[in-house]
Specification:
CATH class of the largest domain: Alpha Beta
Number of strands: 15
Number of helices: 7
CATH architecture of the largest domain: 2-Layer Sandwich
Distance between the termini: 43 Å
Order of helices and strands: HEEHEEEHEEEEEEHEHEHEEH
Oligomer: single chain
Structural class: alpha+beta
């Protein structure tokens, strides 16, 4: 396999180009379709993913693909690219610039905490990119990115994508909201980018697909933070996620454990 530096360089180039495709449709009144699960999708999502899939299969024919819009390809491959052409489609269709093009390379044979080798979160409308590769550090627009050193919940900023769908996590969510300093939504991928770059301390999602979070396994680790499920396991395949600046991890999970209903 190519070096991680070269793979990261390719991922950065492709996500930037995919982002340019999305900008051609942004704030243009693009038509919105509904998928089977009623989530929105647009031609921008489909065009962006089609570009990434075509480019990746040309550059890395032995690698597999997992994409939000067009499914999996070469599923038995050890190395697999995970694509979310627009993370935050709801933001996108409302003209809110906090959406991202996400791309990650995962190693299916690696332990859960080392699955993501390369991760890129590119925010086209903000001209921001947060990216990392294992052992290479995390970067934000070319500058080294680090999580914050905030060590008290009362001073922490908590991010989330919305207030709905927390289900069994609702008591823990409400307890964390009550204990933290400020809370903001419009999160999606941008919430994780804020934690990785030291602008927020906690990001929560009660439901998460692998394409929504694959880059953040390595981005959070290389920035000095944590990315886990709600049980504290470091994984991108848990169907949910909690990101912290690391310093607050134990305090966050103490609250989650106390608030979570017994099985």
């Amino acid at each position: 396999m190519e070096s991680l530096d070269l793979l990261l360089e390719a991922a950065l180039d492709l996500t930037w180009k995919a982002g340019r495709i999305t900008l051609g449709y942004f704030q243009s009144g693009v038509d919105v379709e509904r998928k089977q699960d009623q989530s929105p999708v647009t031609i921008a999502d489909k065009s962006s993913e089609s570009f990434l899939r075509d480019s990746l299969t040309h550059l890395f024919p032995d690698h597999g693909l997992i994409g939000e819009e067009f499914g999996s390809y070469h599923q038995d491959a050890r190395y697999c690219w995970v694509i979310d052409p627009i993370d935050g489609t709801k933001s996108f269709i409302h003209g809110v610039p906090l959406y991202a093009c996400l791309l990650a390379l995962i190693d299916r044979s690696a332990p859960p905490d080392k699955t993501t080798l390369v991760g890129v979160a590119h925010f086209p409308a903000l001209n921001e990119t947060v990216y990392a590769a294992q052992g290479c550090g995390c970067y934000w627009n070319g500058r080294r990115a680090k999580v914050s050193t905030v060590d008290t919940l009362s001073a922490a900023a908590l991010m989330c994508s919305d207030f709905a769908h927390y289900d069994q996590h609702q008591p823990a969510f409400e307890a964390l909201v009550a204990r933290t300093g400020i809370q903001r939504t419009w999160g999606d991928a941008y919430g994780y980018a804020l934690v990785a770059t030291g602008r927020a301390e906690i990001m929560l999602d009660p439901k998460m697909n692998i394409w929504d979070c694959a880059p953040f396994g390595v981005i959070m680790a290389e920035a000095g933070g944590t990315f886990t499920d709600w049980a504290g396991l470091s994984t991108i395949a848990g169907g949910e996620s909690v990101a912290t600046n690391g310093v607050l991890r134990d305090q966050v999970f103490e609250i989650i454990k106390l608030a979570q209903p017994s099985p």
